[in-house]
């Protein structure tokens, strides 16, 4: 095992350059830990001449990542281009066909084509490793697939899009509306070119789908993730939730229930004093719950050059050490079809609505809830402007269907102004 | 790889029985994840006839764990007896000599004999895995050795003795003195037979020494860990620390400095709103800091049947999958001798003392601090009984040596009653 492990790195953006820097800075340490030197044979990116934060002149160059994947002097193909299709997919397939393991940070690629790629890789006897695809520097894929392998997993939860968490905590701290903070985040370069990937929950949904596949032994089913972004979260709800002891997070939840697999990526209330509630700014957190281990909480930087490159290198060192395992923790062919739960598990809900200031208005709302079979845990009515009064309700456990039913009944009462807001309270 | 992986489990206490239960409950899942069935061939414990919470009648029995380790039908020796010497060591050595990998929860064994055992295991071409030895169910050995393998580690910190954290948080919550809560913990069965292992910091010190070896590529050096227990922590200090925005934790800190390796297991103040400060009860937390990844925080149950057995099974599944790596993340022969730092890194300190109620007393203390080169960040003087006044001081960064110097100067002033208390504030 003293032959060097030779990397071909496709994509020299933030993560690619971060990876190059680690290889250059820590050659001796990596050789000691990996049991063999780790070197870069060649790289590929859109522009060869671009000014970069690392010297790549000593490496071979390929304009085409597919050619890079096929090079004889590349043992491991490191795919850091991104994009669910196109060159990233073609080059990953080429590497697998050439019998080479792949290390990737590409959550979209695996969320959409994970099953097909895993089957191809396992047929070729190589692995695809993707620690960097989920929650940046947090070694959560490893913790779930390996560390907790002795557990039947009960639930996986996570705040896995730092930009959304930044927006939500900044709204609360500065008392600013969503639109203002969204523009701030854009100006700071925190948003993807297509911001829907972030604020629409798609990026985080990709990550959740990968975690769910490992946790429950099911085929990746991103198309079965219930997706709701943070665009409709108002500063009012953030403030009122805080008054009731909660924070709003874009929370991913995956759990296997008697009704099937639940995968949700949506704004949820969590207790302000829970680890998830205390998470500020761009930091990520993943919570893993197993039948033996109980609850494990992992927290760290979810993006950025250093953290994501750290995850890439963890995978590279595993390959250097000869550690290999099925891509989703068991053979891809043995993964079960994910049967989505049509009804989500019951939970308490937060409701906010504005009532006309008329005698009996609150009674009508309470009656509508009762008719929908929903009982009230706590209620607050706030001081109000001349003709309307905001009301907050925390319900006991109920279902999303019953909440939707109650909201239709509210409309029939004629005392509710505008559309009521309902947000699930995740019990953490 | 369809031959079953056959375990021999020595020690059927809480962790041993927990491990048996997982193998029995999850046979199909373990086979799917490990790529081969995981079975138990034989077990060993002090008493064969003891009533146990799992049916072991289907397994072979050995009175002698050494004989168990040597059995032809045992592929992996699972050592869950405990004890740094005696049968645990003899049986581990026998397993290694027979060319069998060892999975152990035994922190004392590895803290005291890790180098010798690792060298023997590597010479025999087998691994020793010990996830269960540190922080129970938290996969921290894996996170540090594998997930963060691309990082130069800067610092490792941890609250890794649940009993101590239970005692400290219970003192604060209930306002009870140490002695009372200590007796409570004993009655609840939370304490080791020799409670010094817990409250003296020895158990947590063993764990810190193992983490430090992996983090810094140094030979395990438990004898170089500065140990201080929680016996001297008073309810007064817990309350005063809380007033100043801190909590007191038995905190392990290992860091490599220009002066050498620092390993401390001692009561420290940490900010009350930090993840470490918020840790309540018996839960454990480990903080890993790497040059690329930044800060990773891992939290979970640090002890108990399920969590510790989960860690054991994670190691077993790694072996079933054929993942092997050097015991401390690099070959034992390449580990450097740990050169202990003779001077600890500077930090702010918390000082509490009682002054005689005489004009100029505070000035004398302030002068003594200034003479020792220590500047004051914050100071509080409390309302007092007739003749004495408690004073709290938070210093700017200084060294333990300067603090000791200042305390000697305090004694010369004649205005300080009793022994001043000084506790390091760890900057987290």
Secondary-structure topology with pairs:
2 copies of one chain form a homodimer.
Chain A: E1 5-10, H1 14-25, H2 27-34, E2 38-44, E3 60-62, H3 65-70, E4 76-79, H4 87-97, E5 102-104, H5 107-124, E6 128-129, H6 140-147, E7 153-159, H7 162-174, H8 178-187, H9 196-199, H10 202-216, E8 226-227, H11 235-243, E9 246-257, E10 260-271, E11 283-290, E12 294-301, H12 305-320, E13 349-356, H13 361-371, E14 376-381, E15 388-395, H14 400-413, E16 416-424
Parallel strand pairs in A: 1-2, 1-4, 2-3, 4-5, 5-6, 8-10
Antiparallel strand pairs in A: 7-9, 7-11, 9-10, 11-12, 13-15, 13-16, 14-15
Protein name (chains A, B): Homoserine dehydrogenase
EC number (chains A, B): 1.1.1.3
InterPro entries (chains A, B): ACT-like_dom_sf (IPR045865), ACT_dom (IPR002912), Asp/hSer_DH_NAD-bd (IPR005106), HDH (IPR016204), HDH_cat (IPR001342), NAD(P)-bd_dom_sf (IPR036291)
List its traits:
homodimer, 428 residues, alpha/beta, Rossmann fold, Alpha-Beta Plaits, six-stranded mixed β-sheet
Descriptive account of the structure:
Chains A, B: Keywords: Amino-acid biosynthesis, Methionine biosynthesis, Oxidoreductase, Threonine biosynthesis. Chains A, B: One of its GO terms (molecular function) is homoserine dehydrogenase activity. Chains A, B: Its EC number is 1.1.1.3. Chains A, B: Pfam families: ACT, Homoserine_dh, NAD_binding_3. Chains A, B: This is Homoserine dehydrogenase. The structure is a homodimer of 428-residue chains. By secondary structure, chain A is an alpha/beta fold. Chain A has three domains: 5-133, Rossmann fold (3-Layer(aba) Sandwich), CATH 3.40.50.720; 140-302 and 330-334, Dihydrodipicolinate Reductase, domain 2 (2-Layer Sandwich); 349-424, Alpha-Beta Plaits, CATH 3.30.70. In chain A, 36% of the residues lie in helices and 25% in strands. The first copy, chain A, has 14 helices and 16 strands. In chain A, the strands form three sheets. The first copy, chain A, has a six-stranded parallel beta sheet with strand order 3-2-1-4-5-6, with helices on both faces. A six-stranded mixed beta sheet of chain A has the order 8-10-9-7-11-12. Chain A has a four-stranded antiparallel beta sheet with strand order 14-15-13-16, sandwiched between helices. In chain A, helix 1 (14-25) packs across helix 12 (305-320), helix 4 (87-97) runs parallel beside helix 5 and helix 5 packs parallel to helix 10 (202-216). The relative contact order of chain A is 0.13. Chains A and B meet through helix 2, helix 6, strand 12 and helix 12 of A and helix 2, helix 6, strand 12 and helix 12 of B. Strand 12 of chain A pairs antiparallel with strand 12 (294-301) of chain B.
